[in-house]
Specification:
The protein folds into 2 domains: 95 residues, Arc Repressor Mutant, subunit A; 251 residues, 3-Layer(aba) Sandwich (Rossmann fold). Helices cover 50% and strands 14% of the residues. The relative contact order is 0.09. By secondary structure, it is α/β, with parallel strands linked by helices. A hairpin with a 7-residue loop joins strand 8 and strand 9. The protein has a 7-stranded mixed beta sheet, sandwiched between helices. A two-stranded antiparallel sheet has the order 1-2. Helix 1 packs across helix 4, helix 6 crosses helix 7 and helix 6 crosses helix 12. The protein binds S-adenosylmethionine. S-adenosylmethionine binds next to helix 7.
C-alpha cells in the first residue's frame, strides 16, 4: 500500500474507534442522568420492562439502551436463551459508575463531554471572534462533572496524602490559634470541606466567581456538617476583598481557568499570613510542547480549546492560558505576582502537580 493509503486508513480507523467511544460515553450519560445504573445496581438483573418501571422511562428506549450497554461490555446479559433478556451490572463497573466516594468513580466524565457539546455553538462562534465563553454556558451538568470527578480526590487524599507533603502545613493546621484557610476558585466547595473535615480546628473561606458553584458549595458544607467552620463567597480571585490574613491560601485546578492568573496569585500572596503557605494544584503536563505525550496530558488537551481556553478569555486581561499550564508558565505567573520562586512538591497524582509558592 502507498504511504498515502496507509496514513489515510489509519486515520479512518482511529476516528471510527473514537466515534464508537464518544457514543459509548453519551450512553453512560443517559445511564447516569436517568438513574439507569442505580436501578440495575439495586434491583438487577432487570429486563427492559423492569428497568422502565424502576426509572419511569419508556420500555422501548430502555431496551435499546440495555442492548447497547451489553454490546459495549458495560452490562452483562443474565437470562436464559430464548427468554426475555435481563441485564446485570458487574460490581467493578458499579464502582466506576455509581460509587461517588471512590477514586475510580468516572461516570461524571460523560457529563463533562455532554457539557462541551452543549456549549459547542458558542465555542465555534468564539473561534471566529476571539471572544470567550462564560463558564455557565457549559451548564449545570458540566459544573457537576468537575464537582463529582474531583470530590473523591479531595475527600480521600487531601488531608492524608497531599497536606502532609507540604512542609509545616499539618502542624500549623492543627495548632493554636486556629488556622484560617482561603480556598480560591473553590467551585462546589469539596476542597474546603475536606480541609475542615481533616483539620477540626481550622476555618475556611471558599471563594469562586460562579454563583451556581457557591450555592452548591453552601449546600454541600451544610450536608457535610462543617458549615459552622466553612463559609463561601462569590468573589473574583484577583480582587477577593477578604478581611485578615490566612495561614493557608490554596487554589485547586483553577489558576489555568482564570482570565487574570497573575492578579489572582498576587492577591493570594497578599492574603498570606506571616509564615503562611500558598499552595497551587494544577494539571500535570510536560514542561514544554511535545507530541509524545502520555494519556493524562492527551486527556487535558481534550478540554483545552473546548472549555478552559474559552473561559480564560471572557474578561480582560485575557491570559488565555488553556488547560495545559506548564510548570514554567506557572513559575512566570508567580514571579510576575511577586513570589521569589515555585517549588514542585513530591506528591504523586495522575492528574495534578502541586506547587508551593514561596517568597
Ligand atoms: C475547574 S473548576 C475547579 C473548581 C474546584 N477548585 C475544584 O477543584 O473542584 C475552576 C473554577 O475556577 C473558578 N474561577 C475561574 N476564574 C475565577 C476567578 N477569577 N475568581 C474566582 N474563581 C474563578 C470557576 O468558576 C470554577 O469554579
Amino acid at each position: 500500500m502507498s504511504d498515502h493509503a496507509t496514513t489515510r486508513d489509519a486515520l479512518v480507523e482511529r476516528l471510527f474507534g473514537a466515534t464508537i467511544a464518544a457514543l459509548d460515553l453519551l450512553h453512560v450519560q443517559l445511564g447516569d442522568e436517568l438513574g439507569l445504573y442505580a436501578a440495575l445496581a439495586e434491583g438487577g438483573p432487570l429486563t427492559a420492562a423492569g428497568l422502565a418501571e424502576a426509572c419511569s422511562v419508556d420500555a422501548r428506549y430502555a431496551q435499546e439502551w440495555l442492548d447497547h450497554q451489553a454490546v459495549a461490555g458495560t452490562l452483562t446479559v443474565e437470562t436464559d436463551p430464548g427468554g426475555e433478556r435481563a441485564f446485570g451490572l458487574p460490581d467493578g463497573h458499579a464502582e466506576v459508575l455509581l460509587d461517588v466516594d471512590s477514586l475510580s468513580y468516572f461516570a461524571p466524565a460523560a457529563a463533562g463531554v455532554a457539557g462541551i457539546a452543549q456549549a459547542l455553538p458558542q465555542v465555534v462562534a468564539a473561534f471566529r471572534t476571539g471572544a470567550g465563553v462564560p463558564y455557565e454556558e457549559y451548564g449545570v451538568g458540566f459544573r457537576g462533572f468537575i464537582s463529582r470527578i474531583n470530590r473523591p480526590m479531595f475527600l480521600n487524599l487531601l488531608a492524608k496524602e497531599w497536606f502532609p507533603a507540604v512542609p509545616g502545613l499539618v502542624e500549623r493546621l492543627e495548632a493554636d490559634p486556629p488556622a484560617r484557610v482561603a480556598d480560591v476558585g473553590c467551585g462546589t466547595g469539596w476542597s474546603s470541606i475536606a480541609i475542615a473535615q481533616g483539620f477540626a480546628r481550622a476555618s475556611v473561606v471558599g471563594l469562586d466567581l460562579d454563583e451556581g458553584s457557591i450555592d452548591d458549595a453552601r449546600g454541600n458544607a451544610e450536608a457535610s456538617g462543617v458549615a459552622d467552620r466553612v463559609i463561601f463567597e462569590v468573589r473574583h480571585a484577583a480582587d477577593p476583598g477578604l478581611k485578615g490574613r490566612f495561614d493557608l491560601v490554596c487554589a485547586f485546578e483553577t489558576i489555568h481557568d482564570m482570565t487574570d492568573p497573575v492578579g489572582a496569585l498576587a492577591a493570594m500572596r497578599a492574603l498570606r499570613a506571616d509564615g503562611g503557605t500558598v499552595l497551587v494544584a494544577d494539571e500535570r503536563v510536560a514542561d514544554e510542547f511535545t507530541t509524545d505525550v502520555e494519556d493524562g496530558e492527551r486527556f487535558q488537551w481534550g478540554w483545552s480549546a473546548l472549555h478552559c481556553l474559552p473561559t480564560a478569555l471572557t474578561d480582560e486581561p485575557k491570559a488565555g492560558t488553556g488547560t495545559i499550564m506548564r510548570a514554567p508558565t506557572l513559575r512566570r505567573y508567580a514571579q510576575e505576582a511577586g513570589f521569589a520562586d515555585v517549588e514542585v512538591l513530591p506528591i504523586d497524582n495522575d492528574f495534578w502537580r502541586f506547587y508551593l509558592l514561596v517568597g
